[in-house]
Design brief:
The protein is of the alpha+beta class. Helices cover 33% and strands 28% of the residues. It has a seven-stranded antiparallel sheet, sandwiched between helices.
Amino acid sequence: MITVPALQRAIYETADYVIDDDPPIVFQIGVIHQGLALLLASFNAQSACLISASNPLGQILTEDENLDRRMQLLSKIEQARLNYFVARYENAVQSWAQDCYLVFDLGALAASRWAQEFDQFAWVDIPSNGCASVIFSD
């Protein structure tokens, strides 16, 4: 079981989430976003999740180390034959961002397993109504 520090909880809950679409979709946790709902509907998806492989358990890795981890996650997504978008969560005021993937119809159980496999404190669940929520690994 992972204990999620309060700072990490705050980071997930206050970040801006950006999906690299044209135009980009920017959303926050707990706020219904029509663009997310439309994106899911356009892929005929019941849900989506945002999941990262970077900076395991909050440990800051080099860009190369994070890239290796992201490629491992991308390989899992592609092997499962799931649709996805490149995405990130960021805080412009504090000048940081972390890359992740928006994955369609992965399912909550699998998303939790993948987040734990890549030592992530949390993942973001996006139901068909477009109101995202953070699912912590504790």
